[in-house]
Amino acid sequence: MIRTELTAGLAEAVRLSQPEDAIDAMREAKKGLLDFTAASFAGREEKGIQKLLHLVEEEGGTPLVPVIGQGKKAAPLQSALLNGFIAHALDFDDVHSDVRGHPSAVILPALIASAAARESDERLLGAYIVGVEVMARLGESIGSLHYEKGWHNTGTLGAIAAACAVGYAEELTQEELEKAIGFAATQSAGMRVQFGTEMKPLHAGLAAQSGLLAVKLAQSDVGGTRTALDGEKGFFGLYGDVDKAQTTLLSHWGEPWRIVKPGLWFKIYPFCSAAHHAADAIRQLISQEAISADNTERIEVVFPPGGDAALTARSPKTGEEGRFSVEYVIALALHGQKLIAEHFNSDPIPNHMHAAMRHIQRVYDNRIQPASQAVPKGRFTIVRAFLSDGRICEARVDCPKGAPGNGLSKEDVKEKLKSALPSDVQKAAHIIGAIERADMKEFLSHLD
């Protein structure tokens, strides 16, 4: 029997949350904020940003919120769109295995817009924790078919998570938050066919903007349903699994906080996390077995069935498409190229890389037992190289570097930020210091 209290229950759980009392959650929130900032500054020169800025400047508005790395400010809704795009521009921002998507690139731009516009930042970190909790639980509750059908969870789940995060920060009433959840849910969108284009990071920006707009609509007393998540015609009935949501969405709220366990995955490579296992494996083979493009005849990349669902490009034409291609990642490594942002831009992929990619084949094996510590759960990648001297060598990775269980230290994330700001050491130091002190007002002052 379908129950009808999911929306009200989620709103109540958000409103009654006390994440600021959880030392471990606040620690991880600071680390997540640091990584978000690093990914954003790393992507600040992507071409799509200037296209969006041009649209925003044509439209006008009151410039209240810093646009990360641009030396400019924008109106709150515009800034949420821009900063979401910037954070996700390189696919260098964090992921969460429960979300099967990117929480911080949606939640934090909405919260930054809210805090800067209101000049009130006291609940920003706590609201971030709440937003991650909501997005992770939505991801777990929606069921795997949602992603497999072609939805992009960052966009479809992000708007609701952003609305809940901003709703917590701005202390919405129960009625307002129930309506805000509905306003966000009705804007939920994002298709995986956009992977490898500028629309993919725009999903994060649109979700951030939709979440913030949802709160503004609720605060303006615009009419809307208070049960948008419930029933066969509600969010879970339309997008996923309403029965699963009834048992999963609100169970053991914040015990522990999802930002702590399983935790955020902070990336060391600027491409889709589904290719990180293979990246670690091919680098291991290059280091230990001295394989290269010259002595390798062909490569097999072994996944569990469906383990490469996010890797939509088998023969990418540009580096941007190559962010979602395990073939391109392996070809780059075999040719001695570093797996850095300059190889994953909109430039055409050279012919010799195309030739190398034709010798890389995906294989699926449901007989291989996933490791208990695998991230995401049930996933692994084996890279098997067939060498010209007759040898066959392979490397298996279940939990790549950066993922929970093999994560980056706080110092590692600091270095990621410093690497994104090589010519502005002082700015990096100011941002690091502000986050460590939880001084969000100073943090916001160093973003543009």
Automatic annotation (TrEMBL):
Family statement drawn from the similarity comment of this UniProt entry: Belongs to the PrpD family.
Gene3D superfamilies per the record?
Answer: 2-methylcitrate dehydratase PrpD
Limits of the MmgE/PrpD C-terminal domain? 269-428
The chain positions of domain MmgE/PrpD N-terminal read 11-242
Q: What is the name listed in the Swiss-Prot or TrEMBL entry for this protein?
A: MmgE/PrpD family protein, putative catabolic enzyme
